[in-house]
Amino acid sequence: MKFIDEAKIQVIAGNGGDGSASFRREKNIPFGGPDGGDGGRGGSVIAVADRNINTLVEFRFKRIFKAQKGESGRGAQCYGKGGEDLIVRVPVGTVFTDINSGEVVADLAADGQSVCLARGGKGGLGNLHFKSSTNRAPRQHTLGEPGEEWELEMELKVLADVGLLGMPNAGKSTFIRAVSAARPKVADYPFTTLAPNLGVVRVDSERSFVIADIPGLIEGAAEGAGLGHQFLRHLQRTRVLLHLVDISPRWEGGDPVHEARAIVEELRKYDQRLYDKTRWLVLNKIDMVDEAERKAVVAQFVADYAWTGPVFAISALDGTGCSALTYAVMDYLGTQAAVILEEDKPAAGLPATEPPAAD
After folding, report:
1. How much is the average pLDDT of 335-343?
2. 286 assigned ligand-binding residue
3. Was 213 annotated as part of a binding site?
4. CA distance 113 to 94
5. DSSP bridge pairs for 86
6. Residue 185 annotated in ligand binding
7. Which residue among 169, 242, 272, 344 is least packed, with the fewest CB closer than 10 Å?
8. 95: Cα separation from own chain's centroid
């Protein structure tokens, strides 16, 4: 099934039912008082995140979601039945944005999380409510309020701990096949990956993380060149980026250092927060470099690239260095989780300290 990560829909809540203008008329009570009931509330449109849904494909075929309207009130103080809410199930990670204002309406990032996209209208009042000492036979009643109506853009951002970043044919799909059970397409031509792939990397029986592979980026991606710019949003939720660089000998030319810098520049142009995210350098296809020259090739690349962060030399094809990389990622994610938990603890009870004296 083709991966769909964008859609536009229209949500229409139900109108409230009208109130009734009715009077009690029975054989023994020919001129009874008002007994008109209220109208029922209109149904709302509610979105619920469901982990069993993976794409927005169904929203390409069904674009209008309309909830049930409320029933009108009736005589004998019969209140109208409220309209049923319409539940719309969406993938976890779906972001709703108002098309007209550009405002983010909701971000459903957890399974079971829900949000009311359009609220149903209130029911109208029957003439029973307008009875008074001076108006014993009121004929006025109110109509039901209209339900909310919105045009929304849906955008899916996959939830993953680790994101893979790199040029086409850098070996991202081969790497995700090597470390997880995911089986994305692998071939020796650019843009083999046309949609994001998710894989679960299980380090041991109790520890695992999710890794995301997006189509490769090329220079100019932030302006729309290539395919990867369409999927950069899927890297925004990740906690660490693995920047894969092909350092195999280039018979047809090409500078891997220039390519690596170009990819990072595309990140900066697209989103500064994505550019500032923790990023590790992974030099792939080390198996194609002579074993005696590997250390020198890696050191030369790091020096030319002026890189000071973590560096891993791997071969996704034969698995060299992949295990060490996955363990390092797992340890880093565990450390990050511990830091978050520590930051959430209350700071009460800490002793007051004097500021250090100036020299």
Report:
1. 54
2. yes
3. yes
4. 11
5. 45
6. no
7. 344
8. 5
Choose the most confident range, by mean pLDDT, from 25-29, 247-251, 300-304: 300-304
Delimit the domains of the chain by residue range: 6-156, 162-341
288 marked as binding residue: no
96-141 pLDDT per residue, tens: 989 888 888 888 888 888 999 999 999 988 888 888 877 878 888 8
- 263 known member of a binding site: no
* 315 labelled ligand-binding: yes
The CA-CA-CA angle for residues 285, 323, 232, to 5°, reads 65
Residue 287, annotated as binding a ligand: yes
Q: pTM score, two decimals? A: 0.61
Q: Is 62 annotated as a binding residue?
A: no
The CATH architecture of the domain made up of 6-156 is Distorted Sandwich (2.70)
CA geometry: angle 348, 352, 354, nearest 5 deg: 155
**Paired sense of beta strands 45-50 and 86-91, if any:** parallel
Residue with tokens 């002579």: 290
A 10 A CB-CB count for 126 gives 30
Q: Which helix (H) or strand (E) holds 275?
A: helix 272-275
Structure tokens at 232: 């950069």
Q: Beta 208-213 vs 197-202: how paired, if at all? A: antiparallel
- Residue 354's pLDDT band, with cuts at 50, 70 and 90, is very low
Instruction: Determine if residue 208 is labeled as part of a ligand binding site.
Output: no
What kind of architecture, by CATH, is found in domain 162-341? 3-Layer(aba) Sandwich (3.40)
| Helix 322-344 and helix 172-179, axial crossing angle in degrees, nearest 10 | 80
Per DSSP, the chain holds a count of helices (H) and strands (E) of 5, 14
Token code pair at residue 293: 């020259």
What is the tens place of the pLDDT at every residue in 255-266? 888 888 888 887
Token pair, residue 74, equals 């009736």
